[in-house]
Amino acid sequence: MEDLFGHRISYLRVSVTDRCNERCRYCMPEEEQDWIAKDETLTYDEIVRVVRVGTTLGIKRIRVTGGEPLTRPGIAEFCGELTQIPGIEGVGISTNGTLLAKMDQGRTMAEKLAQAGVRTANISLDSLDRAVYQRTTSRDLLPRVLEGIDAAIDAGFDSIRLNCVLMKNQTERELPALVEYAAKKNALLRFIELMPVSTQEVLSEENFLPVAIAKRLVEQTTGPLIEEPDFKTNGPALYHRVSATGQRIGFIGAMTNLHFCESCNKLRLTSDGKLRPCLGSYLEFDLRAVLRAGCSDAELADFFRSVVARKPKEHDFRHNYQPNRRMIAIGG
Ligand code: SAM
Ligand code: SF4
Questions:
Q1: pTM of structure
Q2: Is there an atom of ligand 1 within 6 Å of 277 CB?
Q3: Which CATH number do you get for residue 174?
Q4: What is the CA radius of gyration of the chain?
Q5: What spacing in Å lies between the alpha carbon of 68 and ligand 2's midpoint?
């Protein structure tokens, strides 16, 4: 599938839930949410069908996300079903890491996911300081996350990525420890610019730390970072290598990198079955209604194509973005 601007769509990000056991400042405010009702949430069977049809149109890679995907029962078994779909070349998971070390039927959740064929684990880690972690996520769960990262390493994923959202007057102090920890754990560290997908008060100039500044601050501890334009994961991160050690570090500059959307290959499926052509656009299309009206696979494929045809050239975050949903309800 190719859109009007030449984006080749091969990647579907699937949110399985809008629930989460943390309350990150930039994602999900502490107060009560309008939760998506259970019967409005796509069943695993419905998602598997959507992915199956997606593969006939060129979808090759899936990332399972949320909310916190590990809070949904049966997640490892579901991921196992996705990895078995012909045409799917890679399934990854995005998680806050708090439940990766949890035992389930004699195995950690990380082991269950890896054994189900999930190849990459993206784990959020904003700080290694327990108090800062607690302030950011509103939960005192850093020790469990660190156990979760170790469980993921033991489980043998192909790649573990640690994602840190940049917050001004906070992340600056965290950078050296995060860089050292990622190197020690042989994990790929990525820094993500704050995006306007949450409450307005968090998304102010006071909290925004551009990737360019983060990069300069990292260089104060690592020495020069050498850009690696040819190294790609599936997303828009720009990678650099620490020249002294070879450690690779990624920067995701959704707000300041003006070329950010050029290589976009993504669609998103929300947990209530809306297909979204872009995280940073209010456009979304009700796939669940089509599915539950009893559509054929051919009709579902037409629906996919029509959504791809509406994919914008680039996100609206810098201009007239009207958030109609928070990150938690879209799937990050
Ligand atoms: N709960 C999982 C986690 O935290 O990794 C998966 C879902 S979360 C929405 C996916 C990613 O989105 C995380 O790396 C999180 O840090 C990031 N994220 C959430 N809100 C954001 C925001 N306002 N700006 C930038 N990234 C954000
Ligand atoms: Fe939960 Fe992830 Fe959002 Fe934090 S970023 S509130 S862990 S969904």
A1: 0.93
A2: no
A3: 3.20.20.70
A4: 19
A5: 6
